[in-house]
Amino acid sequence: MARILIVDDSFIIRMKIKNAVSAAGHDVVGEAENGLQAITRYLQLMPDLVTLDITMPFMDGLTTLKKMLEIDPLSQVIMISAMGQQLMVLESVKTGARHFIVKPFDDENLIKVVNEVLKNRPDPEKSRIINKDTNIRTKPEELQTGFHIENKTGTFIISISPELKKDQLGKLDSEVKGLLSEKDLNVIFDFKDIAFLEEEYLAVLDNIIGNMRSAGGEVGLICNNRDFHTYLKSSEYEQLKSSETD
Questions:
Q1: Structural domain of 191
Q2: Number of folded domains in the chain?
């Protein structure tokens, strides 16, 4: 049995893959809708295998593949492509993808490819070197400042703590401004399990995200608390509710 991460912006495709690999005895440990989410999920879960769509918002499959390989050179990634994406598929294989599947696909072919990749994967216990810090939980400095910024191979993860105070918002805004000069800026705001933030805080965060986007950056959002997630999606804060949430 393998631990599998499914990455696709289509809910239907994710469910199709999930049902097929689960029926074959594998464990789907996570899903992601775009490349930004995929990198975060990969760092959190370190799956045995990833199915990765080529065309996605925020970060395409090829860019996501490259970042996964930077994190873990032994990443086992199967690219999922549409008809007519032969050049992207070829580039993905040259980059390090282990195999590819073209949509539409049937379950039998999917499982055949999955099992082939798993059969030929190297022993991670003997040869894996991980370029990552697996601890993305709340850190001491995060408790002091109410937030923590980490650079995960080019993607900045800004973790927001429930301990965030009003007087710390200015420091967050200042540090974010320092990121705006970054080329191809990719940022994920991680709210973890936060259930509530005051309107004043959300207004500041909404403005910060807006500034990032105005500078050409891609911004995603992770929110584990479903009630808070629902609130953000229905709020008046245009930048927050238009960010990808999960």
A1: 140-242
A2: 2
- Spell out the residues 6+ positions from residue 110 whose beta carbon is closer than 8 angstroms to its own: 17, 20, 21, 101
Clarify whether residues 95 and 162 are in a common domain.
no
Residue 109 burial (CB count, 10 A)? 12
Half-sphere exposure (Cβ direction) of 13: Cα atoms closer than 13 Å = 23
Long-range contacts, stretch 213-219, CB < 8 angstroms, 24+ apart? 213/239, 215/180, 215/185, 216/185, 217/179, 217/180, 217/182, 217/185, 217/186, 217/187, 218/36, 218/58, 218/59, 218/185, 218/186, 218/187, 219/187, 219/188, 219/189, 219/243
Domain contains 134: no
Residue range 226-241, pLDDT digits in tens:
888 888 888 888 888 7
Is there a contact between 9 and 59 (Cβ–Cβ < 8 Å)? Answer: no
- Identity of the amino acid at 27: D
Residue 186 has phi, psi (to 5 degrees) of: -120, 125
- Rounded Cα distance, 90 and 38, in Å: 21
Please give the sequence-ordered ranges of beta strands (E in DSSP) within 123-237, or none if there are none: 147-152, 155-160, 186-190, 218-222
Query: Does this model's pTM top 0.70?
Result: no
Identify the CATH number of the domain in which residue 92 sits. 3.40.50.2300
Range among 77-81, 178-182, 215-219 with highest mean pLDDT value = 77-81
Among residues 127, 157, 192, the one where a domain terminates is 127
Cβ distance 146 to 172 under 8 Å?
yes
Rounded CA-CA distance 41/12 in Å is: 19
